[in-house]
């Protein structure tokens, strides 16, 4: 089993930017990429006397997420000030939620360690809403060593999702993040664009060293380290792996434990692939949380929660299950299709239903449809071929009007031109090859290639591939598998 004498314990804090048009407490545009400091007002600049007003849409999206994560929604939530000084936080505090968060005690099921088997449940400790800070940029301008501050991001709505320390490996951390991101995308609450910082991850990591390796005979915990602000899943995986090795080495060398050493905050250096000490970790008392006096508590009536739950889209886990149950897809195929998004799932279901052959529909979706979408880096919403047109093409293969391999070419043409299957076939000069014509062609090839025929007869069966190649060049509509079959018959091996 596990050769290392410890268990890895990880809890993740994920910050996602919500897909609202405006910021959390003012009406400034919340979109990414505007010139620095052009999306600000007295409220998000923290000017004295300016008053916040809650963005109802942000609350709605947060509520949807809390419910989708099976969280308990309290009937009342409130806002708190989290006080700290930072140059990109002009108010000197962040409006967040402390003791009455939007949701508690949720859960997210992820794939078990071996892919099949039962899913693992990662408990969600809390989900709360808060505002983002601005952005500091250090030494980013050619030839000058300076620091600049962009407050466009100050006040944009963030949802913080905190897991319990239920994650047991770097791989599991990635599985959790992948599933969470997928869910948030399905819910339309965030675009989860990691390059733009819409999804950021902090990881709390420590080790539980087992008794047989510790001199004290009971499980020993290494000091908890929080790795801040990673914005790729790969960084999270690598940082956890690094931190596990580092903590075990440190424990072996110094014997420092959670009981004797303080929490620590470390940063992940993507280039060097190491974590670096940043500061002693603040305890929550360092932030002097107190209720935000400028905002009223929010009362959440049961009817509101029920209404949001009633309008909830089908969640990825439920769709996977449905693709297995109703359409007989295996877990890997269902997962791949679900990961392409809601519209892709709907397209698959349309094709499967109309064709009456879900496996073949799934194969086409996974191979040919996905290939053209990737080649053109576009979503299925922009695919020029309607599900019914794809089904029509596949039916023509069944009727022998064209071969499987030609069908792939025709599909490509349909995608490029937006034409129907029959029009694309006509434009490509495709017609079914009459049985006797195919036999005549094969006979001609066998007669005119004595060398190949001799090789095949001598047992070099792969030599026959050359005949199939010639047939395909002479008549692109010839079905390679039929040519092969007829030629073998004619040669008589
Ligand atoms: Zn503003
Ligand atoms: Mn936070």
Keywords:
single chain; 493 residues; alpha+beta; nine-stranded mixed sheet; three-stranded antiparallel sheet; 15 helices; binds zinc ion; binds manganese (II) ion
In short:
Helices cover 39% and strands 19% of the residues.
Architecture overview:
The chain has 493 residues and is an alpha+beta fold. The protein has 3 domains: 6-303, no CATH class; 312-427, no CATH class; 435-491. Helix content is 39%, strand content 19%. The protein contains 15 helices and 16 strands. It has helices spanning 56-68, 170-186, 233-254, 302-310, 316-327, 331-338, 342-355, 358-375, 387-398, 404-417, 421-427, 435-448, 450-457, 465-474, 480-491, and strands spanning 6-17, 76-77, 80-83, 93-96, 103-110, 120-131, 135-138, 147-150, 157-163, 199-209, 220-221, 225-230, 264-269, 274-280, 290-291, 298-299. Strands 1, 5, 6, 9, 10, 11, 12, 13 and 14 form a 9-stranded mixed β-sheet that branches. A 3-stranded antiparallel β-sheet has the order 4-3-15, with no helix packed on it. A two-stranded antiparallel sheet has the order 2-16. A hairpin with a 4-residue loop joins β13 (264-269) and β14 (274-280). α2 runs antiparallel to α3 and α5 (316-327) packs across α6 (331-338). The protein is elongated, with a radius of gyration of 30 Å. Bound molecules: zinc ion and manganese (II) ion (MN). Manganese (II) ion is lined by residues 15, 130, 160.
Query: How much of the sequence is in beta strands?
Result: 15-25%
Give the helix tally. 15
Mean pLDDT: 91
Global morphology: elongated
Low-confidence sequence ranges: none
How would you name the oligomeric state of the polypeptide chains in this document? single chain
**What class, by secondary structure content?**
alpha+beta
* Main pleated sheet: 9 strands, mixed
- CA-based gyration radius: 30 Å
Kindly give the count of domains. Answer: 3
Bound ligand species: zinc ion, manganese (II) ion
From the N-terminal CA to the C-terminal CA, the straight-line distance is 53 Å
Task: Give the fraction of residues assigned to helices.
Answer: 25-40%
| Total beta strand runs | 16
